[in-house]
Amino acid sequence: MWGFIVDRIGSRKAADIKEALVVSLPSPILRALNNRIVNFVPQPFYAKSAIFVHVPKAAGTSIAVSLYGSRVSHQPAELLRKADPQFWSSAYKFSVVRDPYERVLSAYHYLRIGGTEEAPIDDRRDMRDVDLSTFENMIYWLEKNFHNIRKYNYVLWPQYWFVCDQAGRIMVDDIFKVENMPDLQRELNARGLISGAIPHVNASRNSNKSARDILDEDIKRRIFSMYRRDFEMFGYMS
């Protein structure tokens, strides 16, 4: 049934409906509906007893394909816990974050090309008023609209929104960094969740230079101001 709904209205609108249901319904009802009518918690999570909180634009597709054999949606930890508190308590929970400079630059290229075949931008939150003519113009636009950023595509949301509860407490067992993928590979291999390395499945920009080298100081200052909590919480230098 849920697959039919997704086919009819698109993955982004379906995800919005799913999120609204998780927010509004009590946990017992969500558990009764879960994986019967709506997959609030992706079925592959149960098979592995591992919950991957997928932060957008942080190598998540590569990780999900290696671990589960398929992509998984971008659901905040708090919603996953509410959908099935018992499973949340027993499963291994982890997430992966990325240098905010790299992530916002990657997000720009992703938005500029219109998303991916699986999740085109037209099927996502309204982005028509976003200035994507240049990266700098997107940052200027972002500054003016950051107070209302939840309205827009979640590749622009702060990373801590995905892994923290409303009080700002980290909810997952481990947080790894894209820049230190061997740490994640060792942990998942040690737990018997994967075998071998994690391949790079998705890439929205192709450059040998880091964002820190490419971006000028004014733009970096603006990005830091908006994503300051990501920098500080996850140990990234400004």
TrEMBL record:
Pfam families: Sulfotransfer_2. One of its GO terms (cellular component) is membrane. GO terms for molecular function: sulfotransferase activity. This is Sulfotransferase family protein. It comes from Ancylobacter mangrovi.
